[in-house]
Design goal:
The model is unreliable at about 340-358 (pLDDT under 50). Strands 1, 2, 3, 4, 5, 6, 7, 8 and 9 form a nine-stranded mixed β-sheet that branches. The protein has two domains: about 5-220, Spore Coat Polysaccharide Biosynthesis Protein SpsA, Chain A, CATH 3.90.550; about 220-355, no CATH class. It is built from 13 helices and twelve strands. The protein has helices at about 20-25, 50-60, 75-85, 105-115, 140-145, 145-155, 170-175, 185-195, 225-245, 245-275, 280-295, 310-320, 330-340; strands spanning about 5-10, 35-40, 65, 90, 100, 120-125, 130-135, 165-170, 200-210, 305, 345-350, 355. One of its GO terms (molecular function) is hexosyltransferase activity. InterPro entries: Glyco_trans_2-like, Nucleotide-diphossugar_trans. Keywords: Glycosyltransferase, Transferase.
Length: about 350
């Protein structure tokens, strides 16, 4: 096979029963098979996932099946795919998901026509046995902006942090040594670096990707890994920004970053209410872990937070309710009683060390 135009990287873990739809959608692409390669990486699955991938590779000359000895998460699995990739562009597909038949041809055509380092496109979220659509990409307006504005939008939590809804020039990864970190939400630091380094992007408002919702997926579960992964990813993004940007730009972006961090914390809080609606003790443990995480890292130390939105209000009430008594059932009741109907807080600030709320 000559050098392909696109390398499609598919990390797979315990997916023997459902990876087939995505693989078949790749086999059915309108782009000629000799113009793209598919690199499937089994991440140490305990079931027969690797055998399924190997059987598919045997039937399709542009497919390679790799196996990792131990489970390391989607980041290291994607890195294994990156090491083997030869395409001019990279495309990432999750094992749960699938594409429209013209997806690869469409993004490649636009990438070439626009000389784009990255093409971002829309997707459809589907669920249930019949893959009923229930949502679409919501950040398209925030994507249509110059680099500096996109960076600010990303830091504020206004851009999707997934790598799977993009086509990226592979040299962007190799020239800037971009790799995926371990842990959950590992694609947030990667796609941020793509936005940072891309000289030119193209935004395509067309649904090309079907993202399946599976309740048993680890990213849709709730626990310490989700909290650590999300907040660590955002801290990585900010550390990268501080290392790359001049001081005046860092100063101007700091409020945007903190706004995004507030949004992330609130999203975690809201998940607890959804996942554990009748288990107050579980919610209390979860809230306590969130609080320990953000206070321990000093994320909001010395911060003045003007309350401008519902998320700001929830965040300030959360910090005020639990500060000093994160294990208190009374604090839990106080917070959850006022989240919906409590008085509006005009502003709040951290005055004690490690980001304690005053």
């Amino acid at each position: 096979m000559s050098r392909p135009d696109i390398s499609v990287i598919v990390p797979v873990y315990k997916a023997a029963g459902y990876v087939g739809k995505g693989l078949q959608s790749l086999a059915a692409q309108s782009l000629a098979a000799d113009r793209f390669e598919v690199i499937c990486v089994d991440d140490g699955s305990p079931d027969d996932t690797l055998a399924v991938l190997q059987a598919h590779a045997a039937a399709h000359g542009n497919v390679t099946a790799l196996g990792r000895a131990a489970n390391g998460g989607p980041g290291p699995a994607r890195n294994s795919g990156l090491e083997r990739a030869q395409g001019e562009y990279l495309f990432f597909l999750d094992a749960d998901d699938y594409l429209v038949p013209h997806a690869l041809e469409t993004v490649l055509t636009h990438a070439r026509a626009q000389d784009a380092d990255a093409v971002f496109y829309s997707y459809v979220l589907v669920q249930g046995a019949d893959d009923a659509a229930y949502a679409r990409r919501k950040d398209m307006d925030f994507l249509v902006a110059d680099r500096d504005q996109r960076v600010a939008n990303f830091l504020a939590g206004e851009l999707d942090g997934s790598v799977i809804f993009s086509l990226v020039r592979r040299s962007l990864f190799t020239d800037h040594a971009i790799t995926f970190p371990p842990g959950l939400h590992e694609d947030i630091p990667v796609i941020y670096r793509v936005h940072w380094h891309a000289a030119r992007i193209f935004v395509l408002a067309e649904d090309l990707y079907f993202k399946r919702y599976r309740p048993d997926s680890i990213i849709n579960s709730l626990g310490h890994e989700q909290i650590d992964g999300l907040l660590s990813a955002l801290r990585d993004v900010w550390a990268f920004t501080r290392a790359q940007a001049p001081a005046d730009l860092v100063a101007s972006l700091l409020p945007r970053y903190r706004r995004g961090l507030v949004g992330a914390v609130v999203s975690l809080i809201e998940k607890a209410l959804v996942y554990f609606p009748t288990d107050a003790e579980r919610r209390l443990q979860y809230y306590s872990y969130i609080l320990d995480n953000i206070v321990g890292h000093g994320d909001f130390a010395g911060m003045e937070l003007p309350v401008q939105s519902k998320k700001d209000r929830i965040f300030t009430r959360f910090m005020q309710a639990f500060q000093g008594e994160a294990d208190s059932t009374q604090a839990l009741r106080r917070f959850e009683d006022i989240v919906g109907d409590g008085p509006v807080v005009d502003s709040a600030s951290f005055t004690r060390n490690a980001g304690s709320f005053a």
